[in-house]
Amino acid sequence: MSGRSPGEQRLIGQTVVVLGGSSGIGLATARRARQEGADLIVTAREPDRLSRIGRELDASVSAFDLSDADRLISFFADLPEPVDHVLMSGAGPHYMSFAELDIGKIRHGVERIVLSVHVGRLAKDAVQPTGSLTLIGGTTGRRPSVGPLISAVTAAVPALARSLALELAPIRVNVIAPGFVDTPLSAAILGAELDTRREQLRATLPIRRVVTAPDVAALAVDLMTNSAVTGATFDIDGGQQLVEG
């Protein structure tokens, strides 16, 4: 997405905050940003794992649950200086049929949108004008068969990002929308069916392989460093939408 010289580190002198960076896409993005020369601030819920990641990446860490609104406010308020980029990773999709929904599950399902708006409000004063906010969305929810709640949330994230791109300008706001990504979260969701799903995707995806967290991380860093892109949603699913209904 952006030109670079061989061996160039594109994030030297910049600080990247990864919200939800203890595994999967968040951790892969933290690692990629560090390779590109960034200073890191990583958050996650589990203190011990986060501490290990902090040592691995020479990163500052803060252990808390993103759903704790007051703690999230304190985290941004305590940043010693404006940062350059924020990526919000975190919990995965909630697949529930209409019949399974009750008011509690509905509220939990839309928490992702509430949290994204909250992070956007906090990023306005915490991110450099030349910086960026990247949200993680998805493509799976575009199929009505997965349920009304995830479909609504999947549609809402790109719309939110377009609005935030205007409200937070010149800070750039973009969405990465993965399909299936081979992560520990996918393993937890699929359980014994994981290998079958991997083989199915290898056989049917146009790229003939499964999308991995480092694939998504590479795109995230590209969006951090390309100052011409804002308000956009980038699908990264290996062509999954082209071959599945």
Q: How would you portray this structure in words?
A:
- By secondary structure, this protein is α/β, with parallel strands linked by helices.
- It has one domain: Rossmann fold (3-Layer(aba) Sandwich).
- Helices cover 45% and strands 17% of the residues.
- It has helices at 24-35, 47-57, 69-77, 103-109, 111-126, 148-167, 184-190, 194-204, 213-225, 240-243, and strands at 15-19, 39-44, 60-63, 83-88, 127-136, 172-178, 233-236.
- It has a seven-stranded parallel β-sheet, with helices on both faces.
- Helix 1 links the parallel strand 1 (15-19) and strand 2.
- Helix 3 (69-77) packs parallel to helix 5 (111-126) and helix 5 (111-126) runs parallel beside helix 6.
- The model has no long low-confidence stretch (mean pLDDT 91).
Question: What is the strand and helix layout of this fold?
Answer:
Elements (H helix, E strand, L loop, with lengths): L14 E5 L4 H12 L3 E6 L2 H11 L2 E4 L5 H9 L5 E6 L14 H7 L1 H16 E10 L11 H20 L4 E7 L5 H7 L3 H11 L8 H13 L7 E4 L3 H4 L2
Helix pairs in contact: 1-9, 3-5, 5-6
The gist of it:
The chain has ten helices and seven strands.
Short key terms for the protein model shown above:
245 residues; alpha/beta; globular
Could you name the CATH topology? Rossmann fold
Order of strands across the widest beta sheet?
Answer: 3-2-1-4-5-6-7
Structural class: alpha/beta
* Count of individual beta strands: 7
Low-confidence stretches: none
Level of helix content? 40-55%
- Beta-strand fraction estimate: 15-25%
CATH C-level class is Alpha Beta
One letter per element, helices H and strands E, the order comes to EHEHEHEHHEHEHHHEH
